[in-house]
């Protein structure tokens, strides 16, 4: 009995398959030079390719397309060639809102905390915001009534692992509860579990807690983005609450005498 060979994809992965875009771009295959352009643009803007960001998604799709022989290794879409790719930045409060585009179509938008890396000798004020407090803030925000989906569950799981220092989800913990809620919400359209339902009293539900840092915020942002088709963080959601907490914590840094100050 002969074994069946795995079938190659019949159609290339298009922008519309992985991003929430429309019009001409949606039907364009993601080509290697499109991905290279976005990667170079991210490197120039951020100093590195963003984990789970548009460049990483485009690179993965382009690799599949070229491996299957559906696009050439030097191919570029006419949208990327003629209109280019871009990254723009606006400031909202103490955070940077980053928008990444191919031509005129937005392929990703997220909030990045405008926080410098911590230096030796810095200490945080006792009232610095913890991960548990940031999660509770998202429960009480405008996103509190949002039905939990996979992007929320991934962000909560990432936040929990940051708080506990473990690379796994706690059994019956916040992350596991969020994942169960996201799965249940896809099946039960009448009774949705919301972010507020999951994250109320988050501090009490976490076995351990810690102050939110830039690295914590970036890890949660990446987890949320990787699980959203439109590559946009939820307004006032888990990732944005973590970003806001990281910014506030950095603004509360205390320097020992003689360090970090000209006075």
Could you explain how this protein is built, in words?
The protein is mainly alpha-helical and 263 residues long. It has helices at residues 15-18, 23-26, 32-46, 54-67, 78-83, 131-140, 150-164, 174-187, 195-199, 202-205, 214-226, 238-251, and strands at residues 85-92, 95-102, 105-113, 123-124, 253-254. The strands form two sheets. It has a three-stranded antiparallel sheet. A two-stranded antiparallel sheet has the order 4-5. It is globular and about 55 Å long. Belongs to the LEA type SMP family. InterPro entries: LEA_SMP (IPR042971), LEA_SMP_dom (IPR007011). This is Late embryogenesis abundant protein D-34-like isoform X1.
Provide a concise account of the structure shown:
45% of the residues lie in helices and 11% in strands.
**Please, how many helices?**
12
- Taking pLDDT < 50 over at least 5 consecutive residues as the criterion, the unreliable ranges are 117-124, 254-263
Please state the average pLDDT score: 85
Q: Helix fraction?
A: 40-55%
Structural category is: mainly alpha
The span between the termini is 82 Å
* Secondary-structure element string: HHHHHEEEEHHHHHHHE
How many beta-strand elements? Answer: 5
Largest beta sheet: strand ordering: 1-2-3
Strand content: 5-15%
| Morphology | globular
Q: Rg to the nearest angstrom? A: 21 Å
Largest sheet: 3 strands, antiparallel
């Amino acid at each position: 009995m002969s074994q069946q060979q795995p079938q190659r994809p019949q159609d290339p992965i298009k922008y519309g398959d992985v991003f929430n875009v429309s019009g001409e771009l949606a039907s364009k295959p993601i080509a290697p030079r499109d991905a290279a352009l976005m990667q170079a643009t991210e490197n120039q803007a951020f100093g590195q390719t963003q984990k789970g960001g548009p460049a990483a998604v485009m690179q993965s799709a382009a690799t599949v397309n070229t491996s299957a022989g559906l696009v050439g290794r030097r191919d570029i879409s006419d949208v990327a060639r003629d209109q280019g790719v871009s990254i723009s930045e606006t400031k909202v409060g103490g955070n940077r809102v980053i928008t990444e585009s191919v031509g005129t179509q937005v392929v990703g938008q997220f909030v990045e905390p405008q926080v410098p890396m911590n230096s030796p000798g810095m200490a945080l004020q006792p009232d610095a915001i913890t991960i548990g407090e940031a999660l509770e803030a998202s429960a009480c925000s405008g996103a509190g009534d949002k039905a939990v989906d996979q992007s929320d569950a991934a962000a909560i799981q990432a936040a929990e692992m940051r708080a506990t220092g473990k690379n796994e989800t706690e059994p019956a913990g916040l992350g596991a509860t969020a994942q169960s809620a996201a799965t249940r919400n896809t099946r039960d359209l009448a009774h949705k579990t919301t972010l507020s339902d999951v994250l109320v009293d988050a501090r009490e539900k976490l076995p351990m807690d810690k102050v939110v840092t830039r690295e914590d915020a970036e890890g949660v942002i990446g987890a949320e983005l990787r699980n959203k088709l439109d590559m946009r963080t939820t307004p006032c959601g888990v990732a944005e609450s973590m970003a806001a907490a990281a910014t506030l914590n950095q603004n509360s840094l205390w320097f020992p005498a003689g360090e970090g100050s000209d006075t």
